[in-house]
From TrEMBL:
The lineage of its organism: Eukaryota, Metazoa, Chordata, Craniata, Vertebrata. Belongs to the glycosyltransferase 6 family. This is Alpha 1,3-galactosyltransferase 2. GO terms for cellular component: Golgi apparatus; membrane; vesicle. One of its GO terms (biological process) is carbohydrate metabolic process. Its cofactor is Mn(2+).
C-alpha cells in the first residue's frame, strides 16, 4: 500500500498492500504530522483497495487526508509495479492541481526527525541505504538487456530507493509516464525487471539525472546498524514481514 501527500510545498506517498493499512499507516501519518514539512500546507493521499480501513488520524491546521480507491492486484509484484501508472493518473487530476511538489513514499516506515523543505527540488532521488557504499559493478541494476529497465555494466551513477522519490508535478508526470510505459513494454515481451518499479526508476534516473540526491539519512534502515556518517535519520523503515503481509 502507498500513501500520498501533496501540498504547496507538497509530498506524496502511496500504500499498496491491504494489510499495510492496519500495521503501518497510522504510525506513518502520526509521525509525518510531527516531522514532515512542519509549518507547510500538506495533503496526504492514500491509494488503497480498502478505503474504509484507513485509520482516523488527528491532523494539524492546513493539513488534509484524501483517500483514493484502487483495484486490488493479484500479486504483490503487480501492486508494486502498478503504482507508477496510478501515480501518473493521479498527477493528471486533483493531486496535480493542488500540489507544487510531490513525494511518493512507502508506508512501512516512520518519520523520526525533521523532514523539511531542504528535501525539495525539481526531481529528487533517494540513495539506497543498503547499497550506497557498494562499488558500481555490484549495484543491483537490471542487467537483462531485453528489459526496458536494463542498465549496462559500467553505466549507472548511484542505486536509488523506490521507497522515496519526488519532485515537481511536471517532473513526476514525466518520470511515472516513462516507468509505466517501460513496464508495459516488458510485459508485452514476457519480462519482469528484477526489482520491479525500482529497476525502472533507476533506469529513468540514469537517463534523466535527478536535481537532488538525498543522503541515506532521509530513508534509513535500522537493520543496517549505526554508521558514523548517519547522524540524524529522517525516515526509518520497519522490519520486513513479507511472509505475513504478502500472502
Amino acid at each position: 500500500m502507498q500513501a500520498g501527500v501533496a501540498s504547496a510545498e507538497g509530498q506524496t506517498a502511496r500504500l499498496t498492500f491491504c494489510r499495510y493499512l492496519e500495521k503501518y499507516l497510522a504510525r506513518f501519518l502520526e509521525s509525518a504530522e510531527e516531522h514532515f514539512m512542519v509549518g507547510q500546507r500538506v495533503v496526504y493521499y492514500v491509494f488503497t483497495e480498502r478505503p474504509a480501513a484507513v485509520p482516523r488520524v488527528a491532523l494539524g491546521p492546513g493539513r488534509q487526508l484524501r483517500v483514493q480507491y484502487v483495484v486490488r492486484e493479484r500479486r504483490w509484484q503487480d501492486v508494486s509495479m502498478a503504482r507508477m501508472r496510478t501515480l501518473h493518473e493521479a498527477l493528471g487530476g486533483r493531486l496535480g492541481r493542488e500540489a507544487h511538489f510531490v513525494f511518493c513514499m512507502d508506508v512501512d516506515q516512520h518519520f523520526s526527525s525533521a523532514f523539511g523543505p531542504e528535501a525539495l527540488a525539481e526531481s529528487v532521488a533517494q540513495l539506497h541505504a543498503w547499497h550506497y557504499r557498494w562499488p558500481r559493478w555490484l549495484l543491483p541494476f537490471e542487467r537483462d538487456s531485453r528489459s526496458a529497465a536494463a542498465v549496462a555494466q559500467g553505466e549507472g551513477d548511484f542505486y536509488y530507493h523506490a521507497a522515496l522519490f519526488g519532485g515537481s508535478v511536471a517532473a513526476l508526470r514525466g518520470l511515472t509516464a516513462h516507468c509505466a510505459r517501460a513496464q508495459q513494454q516488458d510485459r508485452e515481451r514476457g519480462l519482469e525487471a528484477l526489482w520491479h518499479d525500482e529497476s525502472h526508476l533507476n533506469k529513468y534516473f540514469w537517463l534523466h539525472k535527478p536535481a537532488k540526491v538525498l543522503s541515506p539519512e532521509f530513508c534509513w534502515s535500522p537493520e543496517i546498524g549505526p554508521r558514523p556518517e548517519i547522524r540524524r535519520p529522517r525516515l526509518l523503515s520497519a522490519p520486513k514481514e513479507y511472509a505475513i503481509l504478502r500472502d
